[in-house]
Amino acid sequence: MNARNMKNRIGINNMGLKRIGEEKIIKAHVRSAKMKIWIIRGTTMVLLWTCLVQLTALGDVWGPSVLKGWPSVTQDSHSLDAKFLSTVPARVLPHMRVYRNNGYLMVSCNGGLNQMRSAICDMVAIARFLNVTLIVPELDKTSFWADPSEFEDIFDVDHFITSLRDEVQILKQLPPRLKQRVDLGIVHTMPPVSWSHISYYHNQILPLIKKYEVVHLNRTDARLDNNAQPIDLQKLRCRVNFNALRFTPQIERLGRRVVKLLRQNGPFLVLHLRYEMDMLAFSGCTQGCNPDEVEELTRMRFAYPWWKEKIINSELKRKDGLCPLTPEETALTLKALDIDGDIQIYIAAGEIYCGQRRMSALADAFPKLVRKETLLGANDLQFFQNHSSQMAALDYIVSLESDIFVPTYYGNMAKVVEGHRRYLGFKKTILLNRRLLVELIDKYTSGFLTWDDFSSVVKDAHVARMGSPKRRVVIPNKPKEEDYFYANPEECL
């Protein structure tokens, strides 16, 4: 009995152990199944999110619809798009382009805001086509305006970097080893040749980057030719200009606020009135100035060594159409073009030279003259004082949104805003024929033309100068005389 009982007990124990083992196996299977379910759920979520990102990104490539915060080409120019007033939507990052890095490109921009803006577009395109890494461009701090602003003070630097990551790698600064070397002054610095084809950078600049690892380009204005470039390069220049170069949220908010204040009182015209003291001193244009003012402007011109042209015949230059229109000439021109005298005119400019005296004729003809300084309080602009590029950024935003844009001189801002307004749907931009206008104005003020004749000729002369679609004028070997790429980026329209 004892032996039988012992066997029974052993059998019972074995059965118990077997059940315990089976339970453990079952529990292990359950845990494994739960784990698989969670893995499947996680994988599904990742796949769904990836699909959503890809579908959203499909519409974020070239067209005007990607222009964060700006109106699309289909909107009515007389109304402020709700998108323009809304907050900037969440960004969908493009896939990062992977390529073998050939080195690093540093650039120091020169000139005012819009000269630097177009230069940045060129430098991004050059870096992309050389397969190098671009360091965030350094802005000009030594020109006449002495604006201490850094890139990130004017442009949204993170958006700039991430929105272009599918084209080129952009870093805020060099890797530590190379930065230390540059800080010690060990860097190859040079100005590239103006108006160059991209092949110049492949053949001349790329070997230097491979040799030195880092090359610093110390001048960036007009360093790429307007025409005969690869179509992908031209489109990338547009993409940088119209999408990647977004102003900082602070500047965007204040610019939208100015536009909203103007819109509350109806349509408005932006007059880019280039009649600041530095413009007159640089150009040597002194029409309407008294002898003391002429002397003051001449002294200023001779005081700045980088203004190379010193002896200037103001009258001859004016007759050739190379001077900005005076406020008095501008008033006559706008009236001759039948611009409504009751329209708001926003002056996009710095301080007008001898402002009260010189602006009286324009104010009499168009009493609703406003400036950012009159629309905003001193507190709103306190952080913009002595920062001319940031002030110019506000004017840029308002200029894009205006019903009519009229520059009195065809400088960098006039050209870049013209091209941007074309991109936004060929918004009305009156490009004044200054050479013809000064001739007609002189005849009218001398009594050789009646007002009706003067007005008729002015209107006829500007029918085809309203920013409508046209081909870019190409003049081989004369890039300064042909149409500027950024004024009419037809490859992107």
Describe the protein's architecture and organization:
With 493 residues, the chain is α/β, with parallel strands linked by helices. Helix content is 49%, strand content 6%. The chain is built from 21 helices and nine strands. Helix 3 packs across helix 8, helix 9 packs across helix 18 and helix 10 packs across helix 11. The N and C termini lie far apart (103 Å). The relative contact order is 0.11. The N terminus is likely disordered.
Largest sheet: 5 strands, parallel
Record field, number of beta strands: 9
Give the uncertain stretches in residue-range form.
Answer: 1-30, 49-86
Rounded mean pLDDT score: 87
Structural class: alpha/beta
If helices are DSSP runs of H or I spanning 4 or more residues, what is the number of helices? 21
Subunit arrangement of the protein: single chain
Question: What's the SSE pattern?
Answer: HHEHEHHEHEHEHHEHHHHEHHEHHHEHHH
**What form results from the Cα inertia axes?**
globular
User: What is the CA-atom radius of gyration, in angstroms?
Assistant: 31 Å
Query: N-to-C terminal Cα separation, in Å?
Result: 103 Å
Strand line-up of the largest beta sheet: 3-2-1-5-4
Strand content: 5-15%
Question: What percentage of residues falls in helices of 4 or more residues?
Answer: 40-55%
Overview features:
493 residues, four-stranded parallel sheet, 21 helices, 9 strands, 6% strand
Quick structural overview:
The protein has a five-stranded parallel beta sheet, covered by helices on one side. Strands 8-7-6-9 form a four-stranded parallel beta sheet.
Task: Tell me the layout of helices and strands.
Blueprint: H1 2-57, H2 82-85, E1 104-107, H3 113-130, E2 133-135, H4 151-154, H5 157-163, E3 170-171, H6 176-183, E4 188-190, H7 198-212, E5 214-217, H8 231-244, H9 249-263, E6 268-272, H10 277-283, H11 291-303, H12 314-319, H13 327-336, E7 344-347, H14 355-358, H15 360-365, E8 369-370, H16 372-375, H17 378-381, H18 388-401, E9 404-407, H19 412-423, H20 434-445, H21 451-461
Parallel strand pairs: 1-2, 1-5, 2-3, 4-5, 6-7, 6-9, 7-8
